[in-house]
Amino acid sequence: MNTLDWIGVDWGTSHLRVWGMAGGAVIHSAQSDQGMGRLNASEFEAALLALVADWLPAAKITQVLCAGMVGSRQGWVEAPYRAVPCTPLGDTLVRAHTHDARIEVHVIPGLKQPRPADVMRGEETQIAGYLALNPGWDGVICLPGTHSKWVHVSAGEVVSFQTFLTGEAFALLSEHSVLRHGLSGWDAAGFAQGLEQGLERPERLLARLFTLRAEGLLDGLAPALARARLSGLLIGAEIASAKPYWLGQTVAVLGAGALSRLYVQALDGLSVPVTAHPADETTLAGLKRARARLLQQENLCAN
Questions:
Q1: Is residue 299 scored above 80 in pLDDT?
Q2: CATH architecture of 1-110
Q3: CA distances from residue 232 to 78, 200, 239 in whole angstroms, order as listed
Q4: How far apart are the first and last CA of the chain?
Q5: CATH number of the domain located at residue range(s) 122-289 in this protein
Q6: Residue range 117-128: mean pLDDT, rounded
Q7: pTM of the predicted structure, to 2 decimals
């Protein structure tokens, strides 16, 4: 019977996902909505234990490797950013204080770029995982999401990156702006229309956004078409702005579900060599790499 060796954690702003590991094999998994945004510093340990307490052996200390916003200034413990260019993972993790003697929690630092100013937390672990699964790979990694990122990778290092507020802008516009009155559902034809407009004339984005409202009032634009076109406009404008990253490059899209498929569709339409890879797979591979480095450092210290 497999015995728990360690626990991997992906702790974002809105979610918490955990994997119980026996070596490199997943033997438990769980998730909750207890993301960093819902917690103060004193509540992280309880949120983690709510998912993993039943997995923990009583007679030993279990190491927990955490990636994501858990290491932010508002998180469990601040894990200072590492400056690019650098490898996605460094040799130093940050210990978080715990009350439960059964766990030893380590947090993976994020990355920073001084000019133009940019930061990431969590994505560095996905990047490390992708490189572990694809040794020697060079190119550009796209990570769609609330804050989409385009990352230039060469010789095993993150050279530079750029973040776009695309996902958050879609949420704000569709739920809190005047556009919300005419948006619901999804029609793929609307996405294709918006994508074409966003790619062709990204400088017209703000005007195109209000056109959605006007067409709804004057022409009865279907809410499903309008919502999908909004997404296409935003993603199209992002990809047009990210052209210095993807032009002439091979692109790997790391993400889950429908959103990643939209990015792949858009890039494929531009004849960009693009592949898609599940976010869980790359995150877990990155956590495994971080665990291996931690063990290596402990062995060096012991010797």
A1: no
A2: 2-Layer Sandwich (3.30)
A3: 36, 12, 10
A4: 32
A5: 3.30.420.310
A6: 98
A7: 0.94
